[in-house]
Amino acid sequence: MKIDLSTHVAGVKLESYLMNASGPKCTTWEELHTIAQSHSSAVVTKSCTIAPREGNPEPRYQDLPLGSIQSMGLPNLGYKAYLEMIPALKALGKPVIVSVSGFSVEDNIEMVTAFQQSDVDLIEVNFSCPNIPGKAQVAYDFEQTDKALAAITALGNKPIGIKLAPYFDMSHFVAAANVIKKYPVKFITCINSIGNTLIIDPYTEQPIIKPKGGFGGLCGDYIKPVGLANVRAFRELLDDNVQIIGVGGIKTGIDAFEYLLAGADAVQIATCFEKEGETCFERIETELAEFMKSKNYQCIADAKGKLKPL
Ligand code: RRO
Question: Which protein residue's CA is at the shortest distance from atom 8 of ligand 1?
Fold first, then answer.
């Protein structure tokens, strides 16, 4: 029996539960084309800004034994380049999800308005980049999140979702969920990297990345328990008409299955894609299907959100 891994996010059908995350290897046309040719069920673009950006000084990314740390600083081609790529990307046959990350509400209004008029399938607004010197993460400021959502959810009919920072306190899950509930947010993506962590090389006595004195976003295995908790908490707090995309430390089919139990409608892969390349999508898909088969689950809905009480 073939396991059906198809799913829906904000009314968009995805042929499988797995896609790339905004972040690694999704900045240029060549990279996005590679994702479209892989088993990723959608093409998600690198977060864009109004103007093109080189990003932070290097070294700004380092592999770690259980993941990575990075402070890329939003290197991207500028939103107009992604706007122009959309017809060709769509022609490759998969849903396209654009990620936008303005430095102000006005920036986000300009970009969301433009993408609302495009052929993109979903718009993910990034409220949680931790790596811009002097800029706070919107997702940690609930008043700012409220104002931003009021503005960007009123610009058209294309589904809007938001990429959230990891939260670590139950009161913050409740506060974030209460703001989200006020607006037609169709999906949330959680979590972004754990921001402002520090890895020190004791031999050189230096940080291992350069920007912000070494402070950067922690990714990969280290953050999976945080990602699972965020997906679980929001699944319990939000109505079922808000889909949840899980991200954080997924590198095997069993990791993906854990996110499914927590309540994710789909998952995104960042660090594993960075390290392994685009073959990871097919590998993880096969592993997930095999694990579900071993448990007699036939489709995503059979296990979604079905974490059992202990
Ligand atoms: O580019 C980055 O430094 C970056 C972004 Br926009 C983000 O949302 N999360 C992250 O860990 N890095």
Answer: 129
The answer to whether residues 250 and 225 touch, using CB atoms and an 8 Å cutoff, is: no
Query: Among all chains, which residue has been given the structure tokens 């706007």?
Result: 83
The CATH code for residues 7-53+76-195+221-303 is 3.20.20.70
Residues with CB under 6 A from ligand 1: 47, 70-74, 101, 126, 128-131, 192-193, 217
| 3-class secondary structure, 100 | strand
Would residue 129 show up in a list of annotated catalytic residues for this protein?
A: yes
How far apart CA 72 and CA 109 sit, in angstroms, is 24
Residue 87: count of CB within 10 angstroms of its CB = 11
What per-residue confidence (pLDDT) applies to 104?
Answer: 97
Q: Which tokens go with 136?
A: 């706070």
**Check: complex ipTM more than 0.90:** yes
Using alpha carbons only, what angle is made at residue 246 by residues 213 and 139, rounded to the nearest 5 degrees? Answer: 50
CB 188 within 8 A of CB 180: yes
- Which positions ≥6 away from 145 have C-beta within 8 Å? 127, 138, 139, 162, 176, 179
- What residue ranges in the chain does DSSP mark as E strands? 7-9, 12-14, 18-20, 43-44, 61-64, 67-70, 96-100, 122-126, 160-163, 187-190, 194-198, 200-201, 206-207, 215-220, 243-247, 266-269
**Buried/exposed 116-154: b ≥16 CB within 10 Å, e otherwise:** eebebbbbbbbbbbbbbeeeebbbbeeebbbebbeebbe
Q: Profile the chain (310 residues) by mean pLDDT over runs of 10 residues.
A: 95 98 98 98 98 98 98 98 98 98 98 98 98 96 98 98 98 98 98 98 98 98 99 98 98 99 99 98 98 98 98
Q: What is the pLDDT of residue 22?
A: 98
User: What CA–CA distance (Å, rounded) separates 166 from 140?
Assistant: 9
Longest dimension (CA), the chain: 55
Q: How many helices (H) and strands (E) does the chain have?
A: 10, 16
- Residue among 26, 48, 129, 190 flagged as catalytic: 129
